[in-house]
Design goal:
Its EC number is 2.7.11.1. This is MHC class II transactivator. InterPro entries: Leu-rich_rpt, Leu-rich_rpt_4, LRR_dom_sf, MHC_II_transact, NACHT_NTPase, NLRP_HD2, P-loop_NTPase. It is a single chain. This protein starts with a helix and ends with a strand. It is 46% helix and 11% strand. β17, α30 and β18 form a beta-alpha-beta unit. The protein has an eight-stranded parallel beta sheet. Strands 2-4-6-1-7 form a five-stranded parallel beta sheet. Strands 8-10-9 form a three-stranded antiparallel beta sheet. The protein contains 33 helices and 21 strands. The protein is of the alpha/beta class. It has four domains: 178 residues, Rossmann fold (3-Layer(aba) Sandwich); 59 residues; 143 residues, no CATH class; 205 residues, Ribonuclease Inhibitor (Leucine-rich repeat, LRR (right-handed beta-alpha superhelix), Alpha-Beta Horseshoe). The N terminus is likely disordered.
């Protein structure tokens, strides 16, 4: 996809089932069907912070070193934060054979071989969103691009634009929706890492504690804290929660903190307070300095810095000793040849928490100035997205004023904390929550959850709209948990739209199971998977309730998967009817949403149009209330005569159909004849559109014959076909016998204007 918006939307809105069907093995990552061998291939691996993008890259490198991915003779792997310094300049040779690996001999010959065999080269840039400034991609315009010196951004631009080493393979990792699309307008393949399933979370936790005496207790402890277990979908958070759980069990505790804020505070408390008094005081000072660094780097969209820029040796030793920082090496300086060292925050969550801790503790941060960091900016304007967890941690810290350890860290008295808390409460009270877009609403819910304030829960729940749409917005397990926590506290009834949200089965079950969720929409595959799960567990009560709440109308099919899913839904109905009959001995009317479907749009386009339509026709009889069947003209489905014939055969079952739109579908006289023969069986049909097909006079004649017996028909649109004056006259003659018809739209380029004008004078119902 060349369109940035189209690609971004496509990545975000795929349903989970669709992604499972397209799941990749590592061996398939570099397979690009139809790719040109002589051109550079760009592959992007997307995933939120902590999802394991870097681990995936390391695994690829490891497998290559063991003989996998043999199409590559050279693999170069770069951590972008190490090479992102704007003042450094490289040639391609410097980047590959000086910074990454320096051969003992033969550098010139090796580089020449690389230039002559670019298809055998894989370049990996891990953390592509580490290029943190706001400029658009620079252009590479050198006469000798392989030899000239560039900034790293210019060099990357040349690689992507195929001006440097054209034919190589580029593998870029980045967070979703970050600035990667400013630099890469064309992506040959996009892969997204979506995290652990509930089963994988349990497996990871079991493996982590394998062989330890409290292995079973650990898994039980984590699962009992549902919010933390939901966060374990992120591999880095799963590991962190396991570490904390291990610490808690070793200390003899039997409970975990209920919020992320409390989790990270407990983590730091355990790290620092297990020391002698003098050391503990020094550690607290180092922590405050580190928190300020976390915030300052985050404001610049950075997570790394040079070691010599750290304010003191004590801070450096503290941050490395307790795992807040990880060391790394920068490229050698081009002038001195000396290697420079740096430090980076060990993970995204730690930097966010420390940044929030700084804002709470810093003397210059007054209570009113805090609100700008607590804001919930619109989707278009999100200035703090590099530290997007800071508002959540801030909200949590504001409501920990009774925690003695936090009070000792923040150096604030109770009066100051209370004042900041009141400011926050006033700020939340002024928000127009019912006008929030889904992304802003979810962010607010996360912040409210961190406070664990019943008053705030009740306030937000009372302000929610009755119709909540998360259409196309990815709902992670933690998102679902906080949404569920707020909804269950409300006295309102809600209608949820969860289509294309990637919601997992457990999350869908939890939301649908709420008594005050009166109706819901979800991707058909997700819904069928939920019902199959409920059927397997014999939870017939929730199965019945969820089928009654499910809404399908209106439904628009845009892909073959939509048709397959709709077919699966109909098949599921048959299974459920049999299941209920077998278990209770009484009959069931099936799925109400199928019975109540009134409008169905078909928009598969010309490639799969006929194939998909023939499959759709097979299940049309399952929708007894279908009133509107629209083969979207803009999609150019092209079902042709074969599709028209197939549809006409099921007309007798479509007793409620009132509108049939077959515009722009390449139907000829052959198809028109088949339709005309069966049209009288559509006893409720009011509007028929055959606009912009290839119907000639013979087709018009067949239609004219059946118009008088189509008593319910009010509008016939047959313009932009190939009807001549002869066919037009036949339709007009038939119209005289049809007082029930109000409008006949008949303009055709093949009908002489004078003839058409004359016919309109004969009958004013003819529209030109």
């Amino acid at each position: 996809k060349n369109s940035v918006k189209a690609l971004e939307k496509e990545l975000v809105t795929c349903s989970l089932q669709g992604k499972e069907k397209a799941a990749l093995k590592r061996s398939q990552i570099f397979q690009i069907p139809g790719g040109k061998d002589l051109e550079t291939k760009v592959i992007v691996v997307l995933g939120k912070a902590g999802m394991g993008k870097s681990i995936l890259v390391q695994k690829i490198c490891q497998e290559w070193s063991n003989g996998e991915f043999s199409q590559f003779e050279f693999v170069f792997w770069f951590d972008c934060k190490q090479i992102s310094s704007p003042e450094k300049r490289y040639s391609l040779k410097d980047l590959l054979l000086e910074f990454f690996v320096k051969p003992q001999e033969g550098s010139k010959e090796i580089f020449e071989y690389i230039l002559q065999n670019p298809a055998k080269v894989l370049l990996v840039f891990d953390g592509f969103d580490g290029f943190h400034d706001h400029e658009n991609s620079p252009r590479c315009s050198a006469s000798q691009p392989e030899k000239d010196m560039y900034s790293i951004k210019e060099l990357l631009s040349g690689l992507i634009q195929k001006k440097i080493l054209n034919g190589c393979t580029l593998l870029l990792t980045a967070r979703p929706k970050d600035k990667v699309y400013q630099y890469v307008s064309k992506v040959d393949k996009a892969i997204e890492i979506i995290g652990f399933s509930p089963q994988q979370r349990e497996l990871y936790i079991s493996k982590y504690f394998e062989g330890l005496p409290y292995c079973d207790n650990a898994l039980k402890l984590v699962k009992e804290c549902e919010y933390l277990f939901s966060h374990c979908y992120s591999p880095v958070m799963c590991r962190f929660v396991c570490f904390l759980c291990e610490t808690v069990l070793e200390m003899g505790d039997r409970s975990l903190p209920s919020t992320l804020t409390a989790v990270f505070l407990k983590f730091i408390q355990h790290k620092i307070t297990m020391q002698k008094d003098a050391t503990a005081m020094q550690n607290q000072e180092s922590l405050a300095t580190l928190a300020r660094i976390a915030w300052c780097l985050g404001e610049k969209h950075q997570s790394a810095m040079k070691s010599d820029l750290l304010p003191s040796k004590e801070v450096k030793e503290f941050s490395l000793k307790y795992g807040f920082f990880l060391p790394f090496a920068f490229p050698k300086h081009s002038d001195t040849g000396q290697e420079e060292f740096g430090n980076t925050f060990s993970d995204f969550f730690i930097q966010n928490f420390l940044g929030a801790l700084h804002l709470m503790s810093a003397e210059e941060m007054k209570d009113k100035s805090l609100t700008k960091y607590l804001s919930f900016p619109s989707k278009k304007k999100k200035p703090y997205n590099w530290l997007d967890l800071v508002p959540r941690f801030l909200a949590g810290l504001l409501f920990l004023q009774d925690d003695p350890y936090f009070c000792s860290l923040s150096n604030q008295d109770v009066e100051q904390s209370t004042k900041k808390q009141k400011t926050y409460l006033k700020y939340i009270g002024r928000l127009q929550i019912n006008e929030f877009c889904p992304e802003r609403l979810l962010e607010l819910l996360h912040c409210i959850y961190e406070t664990q304030s019943n008053d705030l829960f009740q306030h937000v729940a009372s302000k929610l709209k009755a119709d909540l749409s998360f259409l196309g917005v990815v709902l992670t397990p933690p998102d679902v948990h906080v949404l569920h926590s707020v909804l269950k506290r409300s006295k309102k009834e809600f209608s949820l739209d969860l289509r294309n949200s990637n919601i997992d089965t457990q999350g869908l079950k939890d939301l649908v199971g709420l008594k005050n969720v009166a109706s819901f929409r979800a991707s058909l595959s997700d819904t069928v998977r939920l019902w199959e799960s409920l059927e397997q567990t014999k939870d017939y009560k929730l199965l019945k309730a969820s089928t009654e709440k499910f809404v399908l109308d209106p439904f628009k099919a845009k892909t073959m998967k939509d048709i397959s899913d709709l077919s699966d839904l109909v098949e599921m109905q048959e299974k459920m009817i049999n299941c209920v009959q077998d278990s209770s001995g009484c009959s069931s009317c099936g799925i109400p949403a199928i019975k109540n479907l009134r409008k169905l749009e078909f928009a598969l386009g010309p490639v799969c149009g006929l194939q998909g339509f023939l499959k759709l026709v097979e299940i049309l009889a399952a929708f007894p209330s279908l009133q509107h069947l629209d083969l979207d003209a803009l999609s150019e489905n092209g079902i042709g005569d074969e599709g028209a014939k197939s549809l006409s055969e099921v007309f007798p079952t479509l007793t409620s159909l009132e509108t049939l739109n077959l515009s722009q579908n390449k139907i000829t006289d052959v198809g028109a004849e088949k339709l005309a023969t069966a049209l009288p069986s559509l006893s409720s049909l009011k509007t028929l559109s055959l606009y912009n097909n290839s119907i000639c006079d013979f087709g018009a004649e067949n239609l004219a014959k059946v118009l008088p017996v189509m008593a319910s028909l009010r509008v016939l649109d047959i313009q932009y076909n190939k009807i001549t004056g002869v066919g037009a006259q036949q339709l007009t003659d038939s119209l005289r016998k049809c007082p029930h018809i109000k409008n006949l739209v008949m303009w055709n380029p093949t009908i002489p204007y004078g003839v058409l004008e004359h016919l309109q004078q004969l009958d004013s119902r003819i529209s030109v």
